[in-house]
Amino acid sequence: MKSILQTFHTDESGAITVDWVTLSAAVVALMFLIMSTIGGAAEGHATWLQTTMANMM
How far apart are CA 43 and CA 39, in angstroms? Predict the structure, then answer.
């Protein structure tokens, strides 16, 4: 039983998965932060563009 626990303790096969999940969560959180910061301005520009293009027709 001791050897099984020691093998489990030293096994690092899933460590890279934890790293990637953490990195992915950080990227998603950063994107939410960026979109909440510039979202209103982007929506305003999109509305302006829509109005401008509608007036051209």
Answer: 6
Task: Please give the average pLDDT of every successive group of 10 residues along the chain, which has 57 residues.
Answer: 80 81 97 91 92 92
Number of alpha helices (DSSP H) and beta strands (DSSP E) in the chain: 2, 0
Q: How far apart are CA 17 and CA 22, in angstroms?
A: 9
- Cα–Cα distance for residue pair 30/41, rounded to 1 Å: 18
d(CA 19, CA 9) in angstroms, rounded, equals 17
Which amino acid does the sequence have at 46? A
Q: What angle do CA 43, 47, 49 make, to 5 degrees?
A: 115
